[in-house]
Amino acid sequence: MARSKRKSHRTLWLVLFVLALAVAGGGYYYYQTTAQAAAKTTTTATLKTAKVKKGDITITANGTAKFVPTAEIDLAFKSGGRLVEMLIKPGATVVAGQPLARLDDVDARAQITKAQIDLALAEVKLSALKAIDPLDVAVARADLEKVTVNLRKAQQDYNAVAWRSDVGMLKEATALEQATLDYQKAKATYDLKMAPPKETDLRTAQLQIDQTKSALASAQTALDNLTLKAPVAGVVLVVKADAGEQVTTAPIITLVDLSKPTVSIAIDETDLSKVALGLPIEMTFDALPEKIIPGAIVAVDPTVVLVSGIPTLYATAELKNPPANLKIGMGGAVKITAASAKQVLTVPSEAVREIAPGQFAVFVVGENQQLVLRTVQVGLRGTSAVEITSGLQLGETVSTGTVATQ
Questions:
Q1: Protein fold of 72-104+226-257
Q2: What is the per-residue pLDDT across 229-263, written as a single tens digit (0 to 9) for each?
Q3: Is the distance from CB of 128 to CB of 208 less than 8 angstroms?
Q4: CA distance 170 to 188
Q5: Which residue spans within 270-330 are E strands per DSSP?
Q6: What pLDDT digit, counting tens, does each position of 314-333 carry?
Q7: What is the pTM of this model?
Q8: For residues 88, 90, 91 and 96, what is the CA-based torsion angle, rounded to 10 degrees?
Q9: Which residues of 315-339 are buried (b: 16+ CB within 10 A; e: fewer)?
Q10: Can you name the CATH fold of 26-57+342-404?
Q11: Which CATH number is 60-70+258-340 given?
């Protein structure tokens, strides 16, 4: 009985050892035996093969998209007043800076005129302080020379009678006194004409100019604010006032921002890895099927949402040079290019087998249709072709499977 139990134990250990060897052989044994089996079945099946060649691979994702505004902008005047002009209607297309509406500006223009006059007067005053008028100087010099001559004559006449005790009562004394006063006045006038202006006077005059310039700028800003302009290119969505009405600072125009033509893209969750910032897109609108419009993704929603029960990812893309006749809400198909490689070694997708997570191999067809399993490094994996970065040479033949023969 004991002998029978020992025999059973030896049998069990033998089975476990064989199983361990089978597991250790792993995928390689499986693929080698598969290759041998494929070779033995050539009498009933034909081996399908393909050459390793150079080609382009592009990884894309397809979805739907529609034309949407970047934003809606409410526009209002900075101050209330009487609306004298409403220059647009709902649906109008406008460009950045285009006037949309105007308030009564009579008072504002009067303020500008006053500020302009004040500025001109202040500038004249400063110029007068800085300038030495040659004509004024010449007149002052002539007057000074004239009274100097008169003073000399009066002095001579006075000297002739100076010995008299009543000289102070004589006309010569009175004439000398008057000539002296005339000389002093003319000399002061001449000196004033020749003297530079005081620094304080110049500074005061310049401050007055600066003040009037500031007042003019404020008046111009107030006038500009009476015209409501489009901050960006877009389409007028709403108009809430008519000419002749009194308006406040509440919004009276809503503008749809089209300065950056944008589409909202919906992609199936399975293509999540193919959506990222900066990736190029190609948009084809249903209404313009003959035109492919390029663009790039500028935003990706952080969450996946259910749309009719289907997990969907949304992204936003800006179009480059779209046609001017696009309308908000127009839809169509979009293709996202996630990656691409030009003129690289490729094999058909069905030739590549994943023997372990992240490890790949192909069956290379040798002499007499013998299959040899060879590990390879892969790059981009498209729907129909796979990039081979190492492990194969251009022109080698690989198996893509078998097809039954009659």
A1: OB fold (Dihydrolipoamide Acetyltransferase, E2P) (2.40.50)
A2: 999 988 999 999 999 999 999 999 999 988 889 99
A3: no
A4: 28
A5: 280-285, 293-307, 310-319
A6: 999 999 989 888 888 999 99
A7: 0.54
A8: 50
A9: bbbbbeebeeebeeebbbebbbebe
A10: 2.40.420
A11: 2.40.30.170
